[in-house]
Amino acid sequence: MKRFSQPLGLSLLLWLVLLIPSHAAPTVNPKILHVLNRLSLGPKPGDVERVQQMGVEQYIQQQLEPQLHSPSPPSLNAQLQSLETLSMSPVELAQDFGRPKQKTGNKLSPDDRKVYREKLRQIAEEAVRARLLRATASPRQLEEVMVDFWFNHFNVFANKGQDRLWIGSYEQQAIRPHVFGRFRDLLGATAHHPAMLFYLDNWQNTAPNSLGARGRFKGLNENYARELMELHTLGVNGGYTQKDVVTLAKILTGWTIQRPNAKNPSPQGFRFDAKRHDSSPKVFLGKTIQSKGEAEGEEALNILAASPATARHISYQLAQYFVADKPPESLVNRLTQNYLSTGGNIKNLLKTLFSSSEFQDPKFYQAKFKTPYQYVLSAVRATGVEVRNVRPIYTTLQQLGMPLYGCQSPDGYKNTKDAWLNPDAMTRRLSFATALASGRIPLNAAPSNSLGREKSPQGPSQGSPIAASLNPIQLTQTLGNGFSLKTQQAIANNPPQLQSALLLGSPEFMHR
Known about the structure:
Blueprint: H1 8-19, H2 30-39, H3 47-54, H4 56-64, H5 66-69, H6 74-81, H7 90-97, H8 110-137, H9 141-153, H10 163-175, H11 183-192, H12 194-199, H13 223-232, H14 242-251, E1 255-257, E2 270-272, E3 282-284, E4 287-289, H15 294-306, H16 308-322, H17 329-342, H18 346-354, H19 357-360, H20 372-383, H21 391-399, H22 417-420, H23 423-437, H24 472-478, H25 485-492, H26 496-504, H27 507-510
Antiparallel strand pairs: 1-2, 3-4
């Protein structure tokens, strides 16, 4: 992993400022800054003034009803519409972008390999480009925050085999439509998507003595069943046993992926193979499930989604994400009851959370340390630059240890301070802040045709336009001047060309 080039003196200065205990003295209502920092990926120029004018409650309501209040800008829509693979179904992607049939022996020809790699590159680039363009430019910011939250909750690693084909489709079709809906619908959408079925191996899950048990399909695979309970629903302390894991794996036998060349394939790529299903009666979490094929899996998902353990697990994760690393028990209990009384209505959960006394308690303002994803995107949004080239953002996330779609383990990236706060990570953040503040990162350049690794963003590639350095006065206004007196003094005592870097490297900006 390459390091940013950074003058030692400035790096040490920024690091020392970061370590200074401070108490913010904002000139803007701190509640406005709190809501913008939690319900969005950071304020853009004009956002603070906009929320001041409409009021915090109206802003929250607007973000919870994005389809009614927050149309996307035409420039963003045009960029998204140019992405060919974004609206393609899993079957279409497998048909048009899948591995070509072998022509010479058991190996692809060099030309076929080149074409195949280029197609996979296109899918990856368009998925990344769509996510980062929306994150930086969409006014539907809570929607983008919840896409980040739920994708991480139902994590899929993009670089595992066939998932290279389906990662964009997974976010677009299994996650995005359900981020404010019912948890059961979101759970079902992820359970049926080929990306999840492949990532956690359920596509191979087969009853050992079934008619379809042959080749690679000849035994139970417990991977998805285990993570479905431990991570997606009940939680590690959710009251299930290893016997329940085995039973759920049996229930999900035959839940597999549709072959793209099959007759009348389902567009979404899910297929139930009755020949590979365990048709015996089962007892799952104390409930008897009769033999009824694919419907057994739906019944199991119903049981899991309705469980009080699931209600608590989801409530804890939401409270941890939006309030504090160790969320108040009172809030978790209230959200749990709301989940159970509304059947897992996510929008209602969020309304309850945002109106809670715990969320509004000033002691939790700036209590969350930004993940690399949140830090980089909040910095980019603060510049006000219209992003056309996402490659520097993508590369920086790799260098900060949080590549987009790159978490290999099913538990996703952590969102707590102890996972991300360390000297090396801070040095990298501060180097990025310096490069961004000085205008050396070509965000508004023509889009790159590759998302491969590049040199550290100490300067743009040859021929790329350089943005003007950030004006520290304008940047302070954008961020609501929520900086402590010590931070303000440290900034004022340095030359103007360093002040914006100090703002983006300040302890206040590292938190949300």
